[in-house]
Amino acid sequence: MKRILTISFLALVIVMAGCVTGKKALEKGYYDLAVTQAIKRLKSNDDSKKATATLKKGYNLALDTHLDEINRASASSDPMKWEIMANNYRAINNMYDAIRRCPACLDIIPNPQRYDNELSNAQMKAADERYNLGMQAMAQKENRLKALEAHEHFKVVKNMVPRYKDIDDKLDESLFFATLKVLVDPIPSPSRFLEIKHEFFVNKINEYLHHKPINEYVRFYTAEEANAQNLQFVDHIIHMEFDEFSLGNVFRENTIREIRRDSVVVGKVDGKDVIGTVEAKMKVTEIAITGGGLLDFKILDNQANKIITQEKMPSQYTWRTSWGTFEGDKRALSEEDLVIVNRTEVGPPSPQIMFEEFTAPLYDQVISKIVSYYRGF
Asked: How confident is the model at residue 19, as a pLDDT?
């Protein structure tokens, strides 16, 4: 089967590259591809001599090759021999279908071969073999690797024979045991002294993990979901805790600036502009408050009761504002100065708002860490 898959892959690469004709494919031994390219050519030009010759020779070689693969597989002790046979029968039938849809091709190959019964029989026996292998692996389903192996076998069965026995139930059961179950712990309050609602942070993380699957074989649970589903065991626990969150470093500064602007129209004399200098004194008050801290992120192996990975994730948010007054000629002020003097004094944001802004970049860090860690499981 590896040989068949390799040839098919190489042929697909060549087709995608768009650099091969049916004749060249034939010369390289890609007989199925040669047949496909010849049929395509004959559909647009039924008088093509090259395509006619390629189809006639290519079909016979492709048919002989597939029948030879079938005979050798049938005589072998390979447990996957029925899949090899089914793949080859399917390839022969695909050539049959393509030729039947091409009138010019039927003149060249009037009696293409088709093996429906043989394909059906091979697929059923291949499904039997895969199902048995899946059941053997499921005998050790508590071993996640064995459950993964079983699920892969059952997926092949479903693809070959969709209504095979209890395949849907076996797929569900094997997937459950193959799935790495990860509990996302609630996060403790970040501060004893500030009334901050912090649940939104972990809720936002859980929402992402529930709606954007990272891996077919990894599932994330909240504590409520784990209890509701009566999970007896979880594999990993994600624990997050704010090491610290503080609102400090209050910065307040008053500055006074003397502003002078030259070449300003200050009046008119006899209908002509009078150019002069204008002056103003501007007082600006600026306030900045910084909130910052660390999020301690851990993934624990529940069975081994040990930390698998840990990272301290820092974040900081600074809120700032400024306003001002002036004395003198308003024309001396720049556009930026006018914005400041027209701004009214506002109070600082609440600790809740500061905390939400502080956690925004932490959310991205946490999601990035979880995705990168669990993508390969």
From this structure: 52
